[in-house]
Amino acid sequence: MFVLSLFYYVVCEVIFKGKTLGKYLVGIKVVNYKNKNIGWVESLIRNLLRVIDILPNLYLLAVILVSVTQDSQRVGDMVANTYVIEDKKE
Fold first, then answer.
1. Residue 15 CB burial class (10 angstroms; 0-12, 13-18, ≥19)
2. Range with the poorest average pLDDT among 4-18, 19-33, 54-68
3. Quick one: what percent of the chain has pLDDT higher than 90?
4. At residue 58, does pLDDT exceed 90?
5. Cα-Cα-Cα-Cα dihedral of 65, 67, 69, 71, to 10°?
6. Closest Cα partner for 82 from 14, 5, 11, 2?
7. What distance in Å separates the CA atoms of residue 22 and residue 19, rounded to the nearest whole number?
8. Residue 44: which H helix or E strand, with range?
9. Which of 39, 51, 75, 88 is deepest in the core (most CB within 10 A)?
10. Whether the Cβ atoms of residue 73 and residue 65 lie closer than 8 Å to each other
11. Alpha carbon distance 4, 26 (integer Å)
12. pTM for the structure as a whole
């Protein structure tokens, strides 16, 4: 299940310019530190580290980190140097 989930997130974030279906529906996307579309390596890193974010109990660590870090990043975003931002429609 983790492999399928990883595949979904990585492929969607790269092919659909930082968006999965969920991100599209809520109007957010993932970008790199240059505010550009993320690549395969960045997406793979941020999503592999999703395992850490799930700990200790269903994304509790991720919620805490997003709440207290200056750039509202979870572990995967800090390591991959990516950011989740509002997707402004042009």
1. exposed
2. 54-68
3. 79
4. no
5. 110
6. 14
7. 8
8. helix 40-48
9. 75
10. yes
11. 22
12. 0.87
